[in-house]
Amino acid sequence: AAIVVTANDRDKGLAQGIRRAANYRLIRSGIELSRFGHPQQSPALVREQLGIPAGVPIVGSVTRLSEQKAPLDLVNACAHIHRQRPETWFVIVGDGPLRPAVEEAIEDQGLSARVVLTGLRRDIPEIMAVFNVFVLSSLWEGLPRVLPQAMATSLPIVCTRADGSAEAVIDGENGFLVPKGEAELLAGKVLTLLGDDELRRRMGENGRSRAPEFGAEKMVRDIEALYRSLLD
What we know:
Shape: globular
Number of strands: 8
Radius of gyration: 18 Å
Distance between the termini: 14 Å
Order of helices and strands: EHEHEHEHEHEHEHEHHH
């Protein structure tokens, strides 16, 4: 048996003539989700530490600043959002080779006073808990682990339709999917969520309900079941 973390990976293998459909087992890459949605610091304190005023909306991303994740598309989306809702703040958690280009783009777009670029952090559950909307702008993915983490935090998600991302986010249910490389469309869906408290709440709850499908406990159960079936 060949284990894949997304149906998309299975379909790619079949398209290249690698094994038969019956040989594949879809087992998600399990994530420890228990800390997400249960921050160990109050959101008010985390906002204060990040220098963000109380009460303003926060759009956030946890990502690598590399070509794969298209962080410049993310900055462009932030600029579109800021023009429509200038009170919005943005938090980008992560680092990578494109950080200088990202810093330059933030300055060029006049967003320096609204974007918090944190670098690498270990307190991701606490930071995610202050977001109102989670955004991911990737060009390609396997199954991005950050999406189930955002789902477990009850965050509505706006992300690109990049491989496994479209298996974590069901368009219109726990977030929105947009074409890759379309910063303005990404921004438009974020603005839709920022303007509708009930939609944000409902999508966040749908995501939280769906998150255990991507949890470590289910992964272990699925792998155990696979081994038992092979031994039988």
